[in-house]
Amino acid sequence: MTTPDIITAVPVAFGADGALDLDGSRAILRHVAASGNEGAFVLGTTGEFPAMSIEERNLVAKASVVELAPHMRVIVHVGAPSLHEVLQLIEGARAAGATEIAVITPYYLPATDNALREFFGAVSAASDGLDVYLYVFRNRTGNFVSAELMAELALLPNVKGAKVSEESLDVIAAYRAVVPEGFALYTGADRDLGRAAEFGAQGVISGVSSVFPKPFRELAAAVESGDKESIAEAQFKVDDVVATVKGDMTRMKAAYAMMGVPAGTVRMAVEAPSDEALADLRRAVDLYA
């Protein structure tokens, strides 16, 4: 079987006062660069992009390309509620040296299919020289891309794929049935790395793998081998780290600190891990880091 891609969703470091910690962010990026994963997805949900200014996002985009591009693909997320902001972020990503970008659907206000057609059409027109990935996250944005609409958007110039978060693999399969050959699909469900290919996905975009890449690399290798026992053992480890981290950036950063990576704190209103959660993270670090 083909080895599934692991694209790391990367956190951003902030200081105790909420200021962007660019040095801490670079330390995280260097940790990710050594993971062996195929790529990095920066300034997405795990990167707390809604809480960052355009200027801050452009700074992190530049640091990401510098630290990561020699080692892996770098997909810079440039999504925002308005096209006005997105166009500025596209130019920032291009100036940073990025060659791949992702754009989440507009959010907060409901968007019709016609509005999404216009929005992504404008994104496509502004993205010459860049590969564009649509980012579908209905549970956070309130807006969804149906299979029928995905079939249209996948034909736009420069649009090369999509990331799909918190949807079943059946949604991935429905997209695969209507998009052109070579269109890349990634699930945002960390646990589904081993099953993604069965539903037409190239792999996962995983925040947990930013901290604990080894179990994910082990599962990818086991999937390639096709050995059922190895797949089951590796899946257990992936399930363990996913259940321990829970996609929570404060837990990711606590685990980083245990590894000596100065990852700072979060900017958004996310509760700090309990003593019990910290003990579980310590166990996971000892087992899998």
Task: Briefly summarize what is shown.
The chain has 289 residues and is an alpha/beta fold.
Describe this structure in words.
This protein has twelve helices and eight strands. By secondary structure, it is an alpha/beta fold. The protein has one domain: TIM Barrel (Alpha-Beta Barrel), CATH 3.20.20. The chain has an eight-stranded parallel beta barrel with strand order 1-2-3-4-5-6-7-8, surrounded by six helices. Helix 1 links the parallel strand 1 and strand 2. Helix 1 packs parallel to helix 2, helix 2 packs parallel to helix 3 and helix 9 runs antiparallel to helix 10. The longest helix has 18 residues. The radius of gyration is 18 Å and the shape is globular. The chain starts with a strand and ends with a helix. The mean pLDDT is 97.
CATH class: Alpha Beta
Largest sheet: 8 strands, parallel, barrel
Strand order of the largest sheet: 1-2-3-4-5-6-7-8
How are helices and strands ordered from N to C? EHEHEHEHEHHEHEEHHHHH
Distance between the termini: 27 Å
Tell me the Rg in angstroms: 18 Å
Q: Please, what is the average pLDDT?
A: 97
CATH topology: TIM Barrel
Count of domains? 1
* Oligomerization: single chain
